[in-house]
Amino acid sequence: MNEFSTTASGVVATPSEAIDLAMRLEDDARHRRHRTPTWGRLEIDSPPRWGWSAYRLRVFPPQIDAADRRLLWFDDWAPLLGAVGGVLLFAAGAWFLDPAWLLAFLPAGIGLTTLAARRLSADVRASVRSIEVCCAPGSGMYGDGAALVQRFEELTEMDRMLRSRQIDEAEYRRRWLAVYETVPRGRHRPARAAR
Questions:
Q1: Is pTM, for the whole model, over 0.85?
Q2: In whole angstroms, what is the distance from residue 129 CA to residue 180 CA?
């Protein structure tokens, strides 16, 4: 069976197609790690011990600027930055504070930094569109893998054409907008199994 099929559980591909998608996307992402595309990014999360992989194609709006990108970066890294800030605060006061205070500084640093990042980046995050696909060996793919691959290939082809000067910046932005408009608003999550 080589066609996409939808079942009651939300599975939209056979296990072999899920594995093919996983290998293809990971290979392509591995070759592109040296630079970040302007249109967004492909995030791959594959914890090996659980045996599943999650792919998220995030497409930024074409009018995004450097300040908005920094806000998205800050939002992505806020928990880690907050933890580092909490540890540094604790280290600064370690001479006169009980070590039990680390239990207060760490969550406070994480919470305050994350809250600040979420509030500052709310408008930008709302404009980012994404498609998510989960692949589970033995049970298939959850989400629209064909749409994710098609959009990713269109975007990477645009990048290639711009780098080789086959298209100019205006045409690049026009094509970027066309792809952006085809990605669903909000976070397009994979279909979940019926309970």
A1: no
A2: 7
d(CA 45, CA 71): 22
Structure tokens at 112: 């305050």
So where are the chain's domains? 15-61+129-188, 66-123
What is each CA distance from 123 to 73, 85, 118, 126, in whole angstroms? 14, 25, 9, 5
More confident residue, 29 or 34: 29
Q: Closest Cα partner for 153 from 29, 50, 49? A: 29
Instruction: Give the start-end residues of each E strand in the chain.
Output: 40-45, 53-59, 129-136, 140-142, 187-188
**C-alpha to C-alpha distance for 144 and 191, rounded to whole angstroms:** 9
pLDDT in tens, 59-80: 999 988 889 988 988 998 898 8
The one-letter code for the residue type at 72 is L
